[in-house]
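ok so I'm stuck.
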Amino acid sequence: CALIDGGVVLVDDLHNLRWPGVQEGFHRFMLADPPVRRLEPFLYTGRIFLTTPGHAEAYRCAIRRVQPRVKSNKFYGVELLTAGDISISVSDFELLYAVS
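replied:
not stuck anymore, here's the structure
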C-alpha cells in the first residue's frame, strides 16, 4: 500500500458488529511487532483517522480550530480526538488544508 507522508487513512466500520474483521485487523495492525507501518490515530468520529508520524499533531491542532468542542483521550499511547456528538465533514477537512 502506498501512502504519501501526511496522508490520511480512514478505517470505517471499526465498531460495526457485522464486520468484526475490521476491528481485529485494525488492532493487529496497531499491535504488530515490529510495526508493519507506523500510523498514528488522531481522530475518532465513528470512523478512525490515522496519518504518518509527525503529522497527527498538525491535524489535531487544525481540527481543534474548526471544532473546538472535540474531546481528547489516550489511544495506543497517543492523543485521540473524539467527536461523537460533533459532525466533522469532508468540508471540514478541506478547511484543514486551507488553514494549515
